[in-house]
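Lab notebook, page 48
Experiment: co-folding of the full assembly
Goal: obtain a model of how the components sit together before planning crosslinking
Operator: M.T.
Materials (sequences as entered):
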Amino acid sequence: MNVSALTPSELKLRLKTAGIYLQTGSFTTHLKTTIPSVAEGIGLLYADYPLVEQDCFADFHISLTRPRNLRRWFKPQALFLFDGNTIFKPLPLDQAFPMLEWGLNWCVSTHVNHCLMIHAAVVEKGGFAAIMPAPPGSGKSTLCAALVNRGWRLLSDELALIRVSDGKLIPLPRPVSLKNESIEIIRRYEPNAIFSRKVADTIKGTVAHMKAPADSIARAAEAVQLAWVIFPKYQAGATACLETLPQSRAFMRVADNSFNYSLLGLQGFKAMTNLIDASLCYDFTYSKLDDAIEIFGALKPQASHNNHTYANEL
Amino acid sequence: MEWRLTSSQAISYCSWDDEWVFYNNLSGDTHLLGSVAAQVLLELRQSSLNALLLTEALARRLQAENVTDKEFSFQIDHLLNELNTLGLIEFS
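Observation: model returned without errors.
Model output:
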């Protein structure tokens, strides 16, 4: 059963009482909230996600509540609880839904260590995936949103999960986080895309989330082979340019964008070596989304893995 | 006095073209090294060496023509100190 099977009032009631067990990729989140805007956001952006049987195992137990302090009468706030514990400082109530999204990212990025985890968007086409690691402000999510509205499958706009055991990418398709000018750019680019309400004055500026394509959600169990590592950079007025990046340099930059490379130790090094070895690596500068789509459409996976030298224990 | 790989260190490495990525299990650090630095580590993997013998061995590996060249020796000394600072090699 998907979230969409519940009416808005049923969803709101269930979130308020027993909570829902929401399946996102390979993770189950037990979620409770009394905040109407969160229930509305879930109803809108998570409509196509499966609900798991009540009271089953959940990877994360989350609730969003309103702190019962005096402020609630003047400047109401939202609080994110993980396993019943406060993790972050409260935010203005208006920011409750973005807080849920940021909190879900935090749950994965701090608890999932059977994967090498990179701060990157991931998209797939024809059985091959591109990861796009980049710091905030580089246009990663904007490019990701454009690609998934032009035939690419969304694996994630935020977290690349590379299974250490076989190097495959595990999908975690969730709403795409857009901020400031990017929101209107993508609205214009794909008028049929579904967005959450804009929330202003967050730590990231004005934010809105775009619903993940239904097909990406339906295929969330299909792990995929990595083919490209692309470092995107939006630059106003720039001609789209894909430049080959030496793999050793790409290794260091991907490691810099990883949440748990150091934590995984030698396992992380080996996983990263395999990842880079399987990939063609590029720097990509762009200003027009259509140009970017065209260049991504022309990407070809490498015929065979490169002949790198690898050795253990000097 | 000889240079050697830091004791108890199990370095893993990979390389593409002329650049090498080394993982040091003692520090948990990953280093991007050029080919000369990598050759120093590969040479010291075989045996500990003093600076002079190491310079000669590297000259053979790198096919440098004049091993007495002061600049070459100076650069190797500098490199050894840098690798020492990174905890990859030590003086015994």
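Interpretation: The mean pLDDT of chain B is 87.
Next step: discuss with group before ordering constructs.
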